[in-house]
Every structure is written in structure tokens, then in C-alpha cells.
Write a structure and sequence with these properties.
By secondary structure, this protein is of the alpha/beta class. The chain has 8 helices and 12 strands. Helix content is 31%, strand content 22%.
Length: 252
């Protein structure tokens, strides 16, 4: 039996296990299982791999998309450029890291783009934000990073810097934080929602609940909205493609 899984912490209401369990059943894949591995520290990662030799692939979620990288044998170019890994293949003692968040975000964003979406506010500075920034760079969309802990040296602004002019110049808003995600669905980014309007698109990478408070408030002010479910589906299928391909033919 081949095992695939997800590492992160905490793994509450995980999409991945149910998705892949259903996929294996639907497609009559009888030699695979998908398991959850909630590790409290990335220092537990080597022990996990050593004690589970049947694991051949892992998805990676918060908070380990960056922290897992030093433990890997090789890093695919996209993951290297983003500085974040959300997909790992394992063959003997060779662990290769990939970033499929980029593919998921790009493919789900492209149909929504309008000519005036020339700037984006990226909320958060973690691994998911790194993938979003990679795609924005690729598409030629300028961006500003926003965080609860602003850092002038790193060009990271605080939420207090967001005003009507900024939301006009950067009409695309992408939430890369876990704010609003189950089980903390009552939380939300501290935005000046009254300045959002039909010119804006608010894309929340959170997928559960389907409509976070962020999206509810944005929609109430006329903004277009998008949650993270399509991105998640696309990257899950890309993970599967990578896990099942011949690793020795991987072009890094």
C-alpha cells in the first residue's frame, strides 16, 4: 500500500484527506491511502519520514511551507523561486519539494482578471503569500505586502496604511492569512471595508467556510469575490500528477 498525506498544524477540518479518499474510491485506485500527519514542530518531520517508509508523497500546509525546505534533498525551480514548498515526493532517501500553489492560484485567477487589475494588496507574508507574489510578478501585476507586523526594511506595510487611494491603485486584494478559516471563522482581516466597491476583487485563499466574513463584507460593498476552493482543487490534482510521475525524469 502506498501512502500519501498532509503535514501541518493544526489539521482541523482538512480538505485533503476527504478529497483524496473520495478520488481513490471514484477512480478505483486501490493501492493508495491518504493520511493526516499533524506535527507540532517541523523538527518532527525527519522522524515522521523514517517511521513511515510507505509514504511516497506529502502535501504541506500552514505553518511549514517554508520551514520544511531545509529537510529536502532537492527543490524544484518554482519552489526555489517562491521560497515555499507545498508538495513533496519521496523515493527512498530522496525528497523533492515543489510549489503547486502557484499553478492553483494562477489558473483560478486568470478568468477573473480585468484590465484595471494592475495592482494587488497581498495580506500575509507566509508560504501562500510567496506563491501569490510569484504569480503576480509573472502576470506583471504590481503588489504591496500587508501584515499585522509591518516591516519597513522588507517593504511590508501595516493594515493602518490601507486607505481609499490605496484600494483604488491596488484594486485586487488577496488574503493569504488563515483569518476566517474554520474553526476561527469569526476572525477577519482589519480592512477599511467601506472603501471597497465594484472596482475591487477580493480573493480569499480560505476555502472553509465558503464565504468568510472578509468575503461577506467585501461583497456587501459591491466588490467581486472569490474563495480558495478552486485553487485548492487545482493544486491537489497537480500534487497527484507530481506524486505519480517518475521522479527520476523530474527536470529541476
Amino acid at each position: 500500500m502506498i501512502i500519501y498525506g498532509l503535514i501541518g498544524f493544526p489539521l482541523v477540518q482538512s480538505f485533503s484527506k476527504q478529497y483524496f479518499t473520495d478520488k481513490f474510491c471514484r477512480e478505483a485506485i486501490t493501492d493508495c491511502l491518504f493520511e493526516l500527519y499533524p506535527i507540532e514542530s517541523i523538527s518532527q518531520f525527519p522522524g515522521l519520514i523514517e517511521s513511515h517508509p510507505k509514504i511516497k508523497g506529502l502535501a504541506v500546509t500552514i505553518p511549514y511551507k517554508k520551514a520544511v525546505m531545509p529537510f529536502l534533498t532537492r527543490i524544484h525551480e518554482t519552489a526555489r523561486l517562491t521560497g515555499a514548498v507545498n508538495c513533496i515526493t519521496i523515493h527512498d532517501d530522496i525528497l523533492i519539494g515543489y510549489n503547486t500553489d502557484c499553478i492553483g492560484f494562477e489558473q483560478s485567477l486568470l478568468p477573473l482578471l480585468q484590465p484595471h487589475y494592475t495592482g494587488a494588496l497581498v495580506l500575509g507574508t507566509g508560504g501562500a503569500a510567496a506563491a501569490v507574489i510569484y504569480v503576480l510578478d509573472k502576470l506583471g501585476i504590481k503588489y504591496l505586502r500587508i501584515s499585522r507586523t509591518p516591516d519597513a526594511e522588507q517593504n511590508v506595510l501595516g493594515y493602518d496604511n490601507i486607505d481609499a487611494d490605496l484600494l483604488y491603485t491596488y484594486p485586487l486584494v488577496v488574503n493569504c492569512t488563515p483569518l476566517g478559516m474554520v474553526p476561527d471563522e469569526n476572525s477577519f482581516p482589519r480592512l477599511p471595508y467601506e472603501y471597497l466597491n465594484s472596482r475591487n476583487l477580493v480573493y480569499d485563499l480560505v476555502y472553509k467556510p465558503e464565504k468568510t466574513i472578509l468575503l461577506q463584507r467585501a461583497e456587501a460593498n459591491g466588490a467581486a469575490i472569490k474563495n480558495g476552493m478552486e485553487m485548492l482543487l487545482i493544486q491537489a490534482e497537480e500534487n497527484w500528477r507530481i506524486w505519480r510521475m517518475d521522479q527520476y525524469n523530474t527536470d529541476l
